[in-house]
Structure formats: structure tokens, C-alpha cells
Amino acid sequence: MQENTAQKEPRAWWKEAVIYQIYPRSFMDANGDGIGDLAGITSRLPYLRELGVDVLWLSPIYASPNDDNGYDISDYRAIMEDFGTMADFDALLAAAHRMGLKIVMDLVVNHTSDEHPWFIESRRAKESPYRDYYIWRPGKAGKEPNNWESCFSGSAWQYDAATDEYYLHLFSKKQPDLNWENPKVRDEVYDLMKFWCDKGIDGFRMDVISMISKDQRFPDGPVKPDGYGDFSPYCVSGPRVHEFLQEMNRRVLSHYDLLTVGEAAGVTIEEAKKYARSDGKELGMVFQFEHVGEGNGKGSIIEKWTTGKPEMPKVRAILNKWQRELAGCAWNSLYLDNHDQPRCVSMFGNDSPKWRVRSAKMLATCLHMQKGTPYIYQGEELGMTNTRFHSLADCRDLEEINAWHQYVDEQKRVSPETMLACFNNVARDNARTPMQWDASENAGFTTGTPWLAVNPNYREINAAAETGDPDSVYAYYKKLIALRHTHEIIVYGTFEPLLEDDPAIYAYARHLDGQTLLVACNWTDHEVPCTLFSDRGEGEELISNVKTEKERTLAPYEARAVLYGKAEA
Ligand code: GLC
Ligand code: CA
Which residues form a coiled coil (predicted)? Predict the structure, then answer.
């Protein structure tokens, strides 16, 4: 085993922090209209303080017609009416800061809403001063300018009769893409970022930031099974993306002390090293998507719509690769859950009553002991699970609704039953059911009718039950977070993969200043042999999810982390 203490990592507060993501629509409703809001978040700050997280990342709270739940912004300097007012925001920020909690905002600048004044002006006339804020092209022989498919089904181009041209939207047609080639657009973005920085926010999570630079030739993409073309070779980490981010860094980021994380679907290791370069010229870290996309191959019906589950050895190979390759040159983010993913205990663990709690703790151990900044998505700390959709009427997400119309209704490539099975497995609404606060009606989320039904299991799985229970998933997350704050090895130790051929155990070691932390996690529902700890002798157990451990085996879904050696003075 290599006990190296490689070159010391440059320190930063955001490397030592644990981030908690809030999806405001589903977190806490203070006024009974069925929609979460800022006053609701403020009322729950003590819960978050008690959990021990350092930073809250708020999914978008800006003015929006809500085609994509706030990821379609019509005014970057105003608060969504459903969520409250700017005064509510200022109160939230001040209260959070008083409690030592930082706030990171979602920055959605690949696109705006089609109801943003820039777009309304842009679509009015070809001569409009705002025309070039967006990406307009004439049709080709009466058809779309190219074959690109939008992420939310159908063509990525929308015809607009007013000027007889098409505009590009990589997401919904109510999310037209901004034209980053235009320096005025970049100036606007930097200005709005400064507006929020000057209010005192602590960072940005940058929505699909890997897609802001498009290949200006706009060529057809490789044809996919559904007949549309894939835009990613021409838009993901496009020609000028690093130039733009370095400019953003010079003009804005470098003037503040911020956490920055770029959502970078499709990002490769080589690209990630540029985005998250340790010289700080672009971003602090990126979200890569390989491990959460691992299930797609198996049982895939169409693209992301799958009934398959990821296989641990493949997930391990992906995460270990990111650990190895970014070591010493860029910083990792660590996550299994967010508002676009199914619940991790349902996807990677086992959400049956018998194993839910234990497997949720196992997954948390496996992730939180790795090197990088961990992200917890609301309810993950309770072991919240996927919900059940009985028909399309139960769904709210436009991705689900559009996919259903395209694949079930129009193309008839999938039966309604199969599509529902896929939804129950991977639909984004699984993550968006309201936060489960207590066993009262609607899980204590609202006194009204929730905008998306609560998961029926809220009577068993809820914060009130778990905060008082030392064996709960919540108590376990709290301990994991505290360990990261007290043990430098968890933050800065080097990462060494172990047992990389084991079919059941995900194991690794961390090393720092003569100490070693051994972590072993059994991802299966059966007992497996494991001599990692017995071979090593006496150590200090930092955390485990099983009460009576056996020396040479791991119980089903057991996770253990043991520290060896004395820290050098
Ligand atoms: C990101 C967001 C997702 C949104 C999309 C378009 O992937 O996380 O929720 O739908 O961007 O803004
Ligand atoms: Ca409300």
C-alpha cells in the first residue's frame, strides 16, 4: 500500500465544505399555496444548521414563467413571485450568514426564458439591437437549419413567423439559447453576476455551462435512433468555452471569494482539467455525469429512459478514474443525487424496507469519504426514495411530458406501461416530491395542496422521526459531515483505490501525514468476505452502519471507515 503524502493540495474553504442543495419549489411552503418559498427556507435554517452543512445551493429563485421550474428566467434581478420578494431573499441571506451558512446561487445563462425582455425584443425584428442576443438562422429548404435534437425532445430549432427564421433552444422552446459570441451578451451576464455578488452571495452553480459555446458552422450532428441529430460534438465544451470562462473569471469571479461549480454534462476528464484547473483561472470544480448515467446502457428504452440500474463495478471504475486523473491538477465534486436525478437509495442502493436505511448509509459513506466537495440533495439525508407515478397526470416535469408525447403518442415506440416503468426508475420528478418534514398531512410541507404529490411513504420517512433517532439516516449524515470537519485526511488526503476487481466491495484508502483511512462498502444484499481491516490490525473506527461487525466479513450493505496511525505533528 502506498503511504505517499504527495504534494500538498492548496487549501480553500469550498474544498472543506459540505454543500446542501435546496429545490425551493419543494422544500418548505410558508404561506399554504402548495409551493415552497423563501420564507419557508428561512424557517428551516435551524434544521440545516443542526445537520452541520456549510453551504446552501439554491436552485433558481429568479422571476420565471416556470416552463422548467425556474431554469427559464425572465428577470435575473427579480425573485419569482411564487417564492416571495427580494426582501425575503435579503432576509434569508442575512439569517443564513448569521448562522454561519453560505448561499450559492444557480446561474442559468446558457439560455433565458422566451419571456425575457431581451428575447421579446430579439424576436420582434431582424434589425432589433437585441437580435444577436440569441441564435437565429434561416431555414434550409423550408426546414430547420440542422438536425439537432433538443434535450427535451423534438427539434432544437423553433420557427418564428414574425421574421421567418428559426431560433436555437438546446432545451425547451421556451428556453432560447443566448448567443455568447456577442460581447454584449457576455457583458450583461457579468453585470448580473456582480449584482448578486455585491449582495454578498457566496458562489454560483452554473447551469449547463459546458454548452455556452457553439460551433458557428452549426453542422448536422450524428443521427440518433429517433432520427434527430446529436448536438453534443458541436456544443459540449465548444470552441470558445474556456476563453469565455476565463473572461468571466477575470471580469467577475476573481474579484470575490466564491465557490464555483459548473454543471458539465458530457464533460471528459481532459476538459474537466481545464474547467476546474487548480490555478483558479476558470471554475472551482465541475459536475461530471458519467457515474449517474451508468444505468442508461442497461435496459435502456430510449436514451435516458431506462428500467436498468447501475452496476457497482462500473460506477466504481468511473469514480476511481475521476479520483485518479484529477489528483493534483483539479478538484472533484462528489454527488449521487440532485434535482435531475432519481433518488440515490432507489437507484444505487436498495429502497426495500429491509435495506433502505442501511444501504442509504452505505452509499453516503462511500461518497463522503472520497476526495472532493460533497453535495447532499434535500431529503437525501433522510434516505428519501423514488415515488410512484400511475399515469402521466401524476407528472409535472416537462422533460417527462415531452418524452411521453414524442415516444408514446407520436412515434409509438414505447408502450405507456414501459414508459411509466422508466419514469418510476429515472424521472426527475422522483427528486422533486416535497421534502418530508413530519408525519402530518402532506408531510408538513404545506397546509395547502402540494404542486407535486408527496411521496406516500412520508409517514415513515420524515425529518421529525429521524432527528430524534440516533440510528437514522439523518444521524449518520450528521456524523459524516462532522467527521469531514474534524479530520483533515478526509478533505486533503490522497486517494488510493483498493480491491478494484472485487464484485461486491467498493474500497479505498486515503493518506495524509503518515495516517491512513481505510474505507470499505458492500454494495450487495449478502455477506461478503473482507480482510482489509483484519490484515491491518488496531485502528480507530470513525464510522460504520452495522452494530456488531465481524472481523473478516462485511454484512449486507455494510460500510466501515477506520483510521490508522498517528498524525504527524
Ligand atoms: C440543467 C438543470 C436542469 C434544467 C436544464 C436546463 O441540466 O439542472 O434542471 O432542466 O439545465 O436549464
Ligand atoms: Ca408558498
Answer: none
